[in-house]
Amino acid sequence: MMRAMTRSVDETRGLGAAIAEITQPNDVLLLTGDLGAGKTSLVQGLGSALGVGDRITSPSFTLAREYQGRLKLNHLDVYRLEQMDEVIDLGLPELIDEESVTVIEWGDAIVSALPPDYLEIRILLGEGDDDRIFEINLVGPRWSARSRVLQVALETFAGDDGESPC
Ligand code: ADP
Ligand code: MG
């Protein structure tokens, strides 16, 4: 498990952009965390780093949206458990392909429908109002192969723990 920390929405967008640098076609990212945690903000940073020009908003009422950048960005928001069936109907496996990166908010409910490889990002609230803690798990060989580059990408988001006192 890797950890990162941000202290503002802009920093969270920056973290999303840093993660975009190591994403590849066929990738799946799973974002969990309460409402207001910063899931959509992270996707916004990821999207702009992928060259998405359109404003990325929460797709709550559409379940899935598609944005065009350097890669296609599929943005899914599974905000109710009942939507699990709808996600399966959407054909998640068909969304995941050579041209796209797929990001799913509220992913816990759909873990059983996921491919064997995905990056899990759990967002927790920190001490300050704007502090957010990111617990990141690399699931499957496609991601564990990138653990070193991910670590490097996260270096600037280490928070206080990562800094030496001198
Ligand atoms: P979610 O998609 O998880 O519901 P959003 O990204 O839509 O969350 O909203 C996050 C909210 O929290 C925004 O209003 C944002 O301004 C605020 N916020 C404050 N600090 C942070 C931070 N460090 N990272 C992300 N969002 C933050
Ligand atoms: Mg959201």
Compose a concise summary of this entry.
The chain has six helices and seven strands. Strands 1-7-6-2-5-4-3 form a seven-stranded mixed beta sheet.
**Biggest sheet character:** 7 strands, mixed
Order of helices and strands: EHEHEEHHEEEHH
- In CATH's first tier, which class applies? Alpha Beta
Helix content: 25-40%
Topology (elements, then pairings):
Elements: E1 2-6, H1 9-20, E2 28-32, H2 39-49, E3 64-68, E4 72-77, H3 83-90, H4 92-95, E5 100-105, E6 118-125, E7 132-139, H5 141-144, H6 147-154
Parallel strand pairs: 2-5, 2-6, 4-5
Antiparallel strand pairs: 1-7, 3-4, 6-7
Helix pairs in contact: 1-2
The protein binds adenosine-5'-diphosphate and magnesium ion.
Explain what the structure shows.
- This protein has 6 helices and 7 strands, in the order E-H-E-H-E-E-H-H-E-E-E-H-H.
- The protein is an alpha/beta fold and 166 residues long.
- The protein has one domain: 3-Layer(aba) Sandwich (Rossmann fold), CATH 3.40.50.
- The protein is globular.
- It starts with a strand and ends in a 12-residue tail after the last helix.
- Bound molecules: adenosine-5'-diphosphate (ADP) and magnesium ion.
- The site of adenosine-5'-diphosphate (ADP) has 18 residues, from helix 1 and helix 2.
Labels describing this entry:
166 residues; alpha/beta; Rossmann fold; seven-stranded mixed beta sheet; 7 strands; 28% helix; binds adenosine-5'-diphosphate; binds magnesium ion
